[in-house]
Amino acid sequence: MREDWVVDAPIVGRDYQPPCPDQVIENVLENVLHFLTARRDRNAVSLVCKSWYRAEAYTRSELFIGNCYAVSPRRATERFRRVYSVVIKGKPRFADFSLMPVNWGAHFTPWLSALAAAYPWLEKVYLKRMSITDDDLARLSLAFPSFKELTLVCCDGFGTSGLAILASKCRQLRVLDLIEDELNDDDDDDGADWISCFPADGTCLESLSFDCIEQQINFPALESLVARSPNLKKLRLNQFVSLEQLHRLIVRASQLTHLGTGSFSPSQNLAPPPGPGGNEPDYGPAFAACKSLVCLSGFREVVPLYLPVIYPVCENLTSLNFSYANLNAQELHSVISLCHKLRTLWVLDTVRDEGLKAVGATCKDLLELRVFPIDAREDSEGFVSEVGLLAIAQGCRKLRSILYFCQRMTNAAVIAMSKNCPDLVVFRLCIMGRHRPDHVTNEPMDKGFGAIVINCKKLTRLGISGLLTDEAFAYIGKYGKLVRTLSVAFAGDSDMALKYVLQGCSNLQKLEVRDSPFGDSALFAGLQHYYNMRFFWISSCKITLQNCRQIARTLPNMVLEVFTNMPVAVQDEDEFVDTLYMYRSLAGPRNDNPSYVRIL
Amino acid sequence: MMATTAERGVYRTIDFEETELRLGLPGGAGGGGGSGAGGGNESEMAKNSFKRGFSETESKVDLKLNLSMTAASSKVLESRNASDATGNKKMKEKVTAGDPAKPPAAKAQVVGWPPVRSFRKNVMAVQKNSSDEAEKKASSSVAFVKVSMDGAPYLRKVDLKLYKSYLELSDALGKMFSSFTIGSCGSDGVKDFMNESKLIDLLSGSEYVPTYEDKDGDWMLVGDVPWEMFVNSCKRLRIMKGSEAIGLAPRAVERCKSRT
């Protein structure tokens, strides 16, 4: 603690001793460090010497835990003493795709216990892919009187009863964002009316997101909540809020900056014919009054007839999420042609290549694009192709991040994007049909991805797909020096592919590999590097149990877990492991793993 | 490079061949046609049947098929080449897309591919079902339903479209809730539920039975209706104790009676 270097010596006559130079430096350091927020900078500072380590530990106010099992809660809270905000990430990303067995882990409870003991002043918690229970939510509400912000992304284990307790006890709550969580409610009818539980005399709410809650909410209570939340800027509704209800909300909250529109369709009990005018509220002016609106999402059951009501806000929009909206090219065009300031766009592939051409023509400042498939099967029709990608490449030169699902692609289009969009930081192309080559030349997609790593010098995240040989990996290993996250599926010919990557990509942090012909020798190639990585996931490849054991022996600070996606344990007699998930850890093997997850 | 192209062609064929084999029942009695070399690998096959990936085609099935199916596989390659004048690329697309005459479910689906979160898949499935345009397209690609088991502390979601029969589903459920047993199921899971006396025995015991809520909101015993109909009408699954499911039996028993 602080006893080893005193800040202020009391001035008492002859006994006065001016602080020694070391102490002065540490005081200064501490004050300077308050301005240092970037994690990497702080980590670097802490390595300089012991006193710098202490000073940094004392002044770090945000604790980021990239893998909840990499360090024990106690160790983290003992080192960092004045933390106000915590970010914890649990399961690896492939857990989202049903590749992990149920109850694998990533429980928030032990972290909560440590945080509650160490940081009673805690204000913010951000969890991603963790399991948090209703009990945890209750304890959290009671343990932190100043609690202000809770964000849960892709979490599970809790339900509306936990939310009800949180809403009623955390009177200073400013942010409650539930993003793509899976709530636990057993029966749709038994959900708790958590919306009614917020403080009756007014709330501090600035952001409320519940678009992932698949239940009706008490609408009158929501209306009243919005009315008594003067600071509310971000509101994201679920699909059970109809257009009329949305209207009632936004007329009371024209100060909103971010709006998730819910279903964006009229409620069922309106007499036909539907359509603007008639006995419907006038949606246009209500939207027009929201002059600060910059981000729109929702549109879960969009009736395109009503899209014109958002035209007035389009010119100021910087972010638009149409990824649940089944819109065709023309419907998208009517909106997008007004969105000149758009920086982020998520759409469904129903907009087709023509829709993407409209995007390329208007959205010159676009930084992030995601195109999702309406039919996510590998043999689905696929409505976008290299034509759309090319249109984006030609129009959106400032593009930094792209996620693109398609069934047909060419190397030429990918190469064109690599040249036109040199600022790309994230490039994730998912050709849904497995092993699909360039559909014009019938060649593997090696050259395309090669061009990306060569030309996009800032690239840190790469997702590859399609027919790929070892050549693609040679490119990645040679040129992808800044790549931190790499996602591989159904790719490569031999172990050389993985070797290129493990030996070439010096900044690799997160590697996820599935269904590729990589065996034991590939794994050995990375022995020098694994400890620099956050994790390595490899499933449905040709990795033997014996080899995993050997690696576990060779690298004592790595935790190696072997499992399948079913709650069935890997047997000693098994030759191949289905999934190997390994990560560095200061905490050693965890003790909360279910019996069917073996730790070697 | 030539070698690898040929290799790849073989892998694609193996996919298709494997699909045909799969129309039988994995791991159960009488599983699959023609996979004579199956023997000791069958339990592994069953375990891996829900993780259809490269490793299975490559390491396990590859060996079996090379022994017994090489002649057949080259025939298949030939016939496909002959029927498809537009050449190699189209052939690959056709194989991956499956025979248009067969329903899409005939192609072995891989878990977690394409990498789209189940939340999104589910939302899309619901939307597609409710729009006119969607009816022209293939029927809903996923059917995620919540599964709960009395006494188990967690819920799961399963995609019914991943399975082709009651037996596959019960295998998967059995592994998910490991103390759960569907009771005795012969080679045809449906059949046992049709057998009245066995049904009564099953229901009066303390073994768990799966029940489901259908579109009309009725709770029924799983196994009541043909598999396809079940997948299209099941909204949610609940695994309850046999004795508790007695109340549902009369309908099932009635149907048994009306069929015999």
Plain-language structure description:
The complex is a heterodimer of chains A (600) and B (260). Chain A has 600 residues and is of the alpha/beta class. Chain A has 20 helices and 21 strands. Chain A has a 21-stranded mixed sheet, with helices on one face. In chain A, helix 15 packs parallel to helix 16. Chain A is globular. In chain B, strand 1 and strand 2 form a beta hairpin. In chain B, helix 1 packs across helix 3 and helix 10 packs antiparallel against helix 12. Chain B is globular and about 40 Å long. The N terminus of chain B is likely disordered. At the A-B interface, loops of A face helix 1, helix 3, helix 5, helix 6 and strand 2 of B.
Précis, in short:
The complex is a heterodimer of chains A (600) and B (260). In chain A, 30% of the residues lie in helices and 16% in strands.
Q: Can you lay out the helices and strands and say which pair or pack?
A:
The complex is a heterodimer of chains A (600) and B (260).
Chain A: H1 21-33, H2 39-46, H3 50-59, E1 62-65, H4 73-79, E2 85-89, H5 109-118, E3 124-128, H6 134-143, E4 149-153, H7 160-169, E5 175-179, E6 207-209, H8 219-227, E7 234-237, H9 243-250, E8 258-261, H10 283-288, E9 295-297, H11 311-314, E10 319-321, H12 329-336, E11 344-348, H13 352-362, E12 368-372, H14 386-395, E13 401-406, H15 411-420, E14 426-431, H16 446-455, E15 461-463, H17 470-479, E16 485-489, H18 495-504, E17 510-514, H19 520-524, E18 535-539, H20 545-554, E19 558-563, E20 579-584, E21 598-599
Parallel strand pairs in A: 1-2, 2-3, 3-4, 4-5, 5-6, 6-7, 7-8, 8-9, 9-10, 10-11, 11-12, 12-13, 13-14, 14-15, 15-16, 16-17, 17-18
Antiparallel strand pairs in A: 18-20, 19-20, 19-21
Helix pairs in contact in A: 1-3, 2-3, 4-5, 6-7, 12-13, 13-14, 14-15, 15-16, 16-17, 17-18
Chain B: H1 2-22, H2 42-48, H3 54-68, H4 70-83, H5 88-97, H6 118-130, H7 132-136, E1 144-149, E2 156-159, H8 166-176, H9 189-194, H10 196-204, E3 208-214, E4 219-221, H11 227-233, E5 234-241, H12 249-259
Helix pairs in contact in B: 1-3, 10-12
